[in-house]
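Protocol step 4 of 6: structure prediction from sequence.
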Amino acid sequence: MNALGSVLLWITDHGYQFLLVGLVLAFLIGDPRGRRRVVRVFLILGGIVVGCVFIAAAYGKMKPLPGFAWSWASIRLSLSMFAIQVDSYHILSPGLTNAFAHFLPYYELALGLWLLSGIGQRFSGPLASLTLIVFMIAITSAYFRGLKIDCGCGIGPPEEAGPGALARDGLKFLLPALLVTIGAFWLRRHPRAAFKSASPATASASAD
């Protein structure tokens, strides 16, 4: 399981770089069909990157504390510890804090697996983006209220809620989610049938 965590962290740290390269390639290709193929590959990669972000977040919150093996009991203990981080934001009542702390990692895991599947990215992409925006709003709120707390993202080493955490989340997490969303809607607006129907028209125009 430690190897899985290392792989997830590597993808969350470097995945956005590959997506930016794919974005540049998509802009450089002038042929519509070629651009469409690049965008489709871009979306597959984007789904993997953003999916790993959410799976890594869930993994970081659910993994057993040092000295404990994986079990339902150790996961519940880890989520109870995560509830303390959620409570440090001073946003939710104690009852809602505990419920949220036990719900969020499973939600992140489910959303991550959905993104990895590549199914319905016009829906999973915006949902991922909205989720990350809500997290960033909570971090911003904590920072302006002067709270010196761990952001509680569960990804990588502890990060204090503040500009550093916002910069990391915006570049490495939110940007890929937004790119996946934009790419999915771009494909929707440029269906393959349009390129196929345009080819005979182009051929007849050339013949004339």
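Step 5 (inspection) to follow. Residues 32-62 form the longest helix (31 residues).
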